[in-house]
Amino acid sequence: MELSQLLRERRSVHRFQQKEVPVELATELLDTAIWVPNYHMTQPWRFIISHGEGKRRMAEAVRYMKEIREPDQSKRKETGQKFYDKIMAIPMIITVIMQENTNLIIREEDYASTSCIIHNFSLLAWERGIGLVWETYPWLLEAVFRDAMGIKPGEKVLGNLHVGYPAQIPNAQPRIPAMERITVISEA
Ligand SMILES: Cc1cc2nc3c(=O)[nH]c(=O)nc-3n(C[C@H](O)[C@H](O)[C@H](O)COP(=O)(O)O)c2cc1C
User: Fold this and answer.
1) 87 pLDDT band (50/70/90 cuts)?
2) pLDDT tens, 170-186?
3) What is the pLDDT of residues 130-161, one digit of tens each?
4) For 3-181, CATH number?
5) Looking at ligand 1, which atom is closest to the CA of residue 137?
6) Is the distance from CB of 176 to CB of 25 less than 8 angstroms?
């Protein structure tokens, strides 16, 4: 597929078939996706791939966080179970983590590079018929999640990628044409 077509036809996917994405394939795609520009070559990223029974660790943490925040005592178990089941239903979750440099400028550049990896991966996956959505729910910041996943102090979680073979592909969300956002300076 032409790169331009891939870029225009990729969608964020929220609903997946109950079909495993091979870890070897995800790893192979990540190994290509990391070929991003990275000023200072800090390469600050790492990834946690959770799949199959391996999702239980995250699902249990989410269950706990959702239970303790449920104001209606009688609904706690039900609410926790709902979110547990949601996590378990996602075929593969890739947690994207970045070492936070103490230098603000390098930290921002590192965030830019790591974001490029996510989009590279998204396009490479789409080419293979695999969809994903980059999720940034607030509980990614919580100690319960971080501890469960072994995320160390000084590491930033950019998001969870929900990865799988699409059960439904959403319609395109229109973009403002770039023409409307371009200023061309041709003369002195
Ligand atoms: C940094 C970032 C965070 C995002 N977080 C979420 C999220 O938490 N939940 C979600 O449903 N989509 C999230 N998205 C996906 C966007 O909603 C999606 O890209 C946008 O609606 C455009 O749709 P498209 O990707 O299909 O073109 C995120 C995207 C980015 C770049």
Assistant:
1) very high
2) 999 999 999 999 999 99
3) 999 999 999 999 999 999 999 999 999 999 99
4) 3.40.109.10
5) 8
6) no
The first and second tokens of residue 126, run together, are 């789409």
> Would you say residue 1 has pLDDT above 90?
no
The Cα 98–Cα 145 span in angstroms is 16
Q: How many A from CA of 1 to the centre of ligand 1? A: 23
Q: 187: CA distance to ligand 1 center in Å?
A: 38
- Please tell me the residue having the least CA distance from ligand 1 atom 7: 135
Distance (Å, whole) CA 16 – CA 24: 19
CB 50 within 8 A of CB 58: yes
- Domain spans, the chain: 3-181
Q: What is the pLDDT of residues 26-39, one digit of tens each?
A: 999 999 999 999 99
* Separation in Å, CA 116 to CA 37, 137, 178, 188: 8, 20, 19, 34
Structure tokens at 71: 């104001």
Q: What CA–CA distance (Å, rounded) separates 84 from 169?
A: 24
User: In angstroms, what is the span from residue 110 Cα to ligand 1's centroid?
Assistant: 20
